[in-house]
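Sequence, please.
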């Protein structure tokens, strides 16, 4: 009798509902817009420049953090 072992690729797959994915993308979009709206002092507090914040805010909504894809 043989047994199948789980491969790392199979254990890394998480089921994600379409509604859950939509809400996550909406939250990401709002977060990026809020980042772009921060004033210079708030950006300095978190260690970003105005250019960094604008660059992040202009990323497309489907350009998600790498850890979301795991």
């Amino acid at each position: 009798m043989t047994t199948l072992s789980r491969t790392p690729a199979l254990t890394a797959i998480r089921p994600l509902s379409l509604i859950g994915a939509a809400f996550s993308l909406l939250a990401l979009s709002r977060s990026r817009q809020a980042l772009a709206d921060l004033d210079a002092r708030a950006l300095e507090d978190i260690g970003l420049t105005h250019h960094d914040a604008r660059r992040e805010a202009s990323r497309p909504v489907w350009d998600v953090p790498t850890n979301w894809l795991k």
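Residues 19 and 29 are 15 Å apart (CA to CA).
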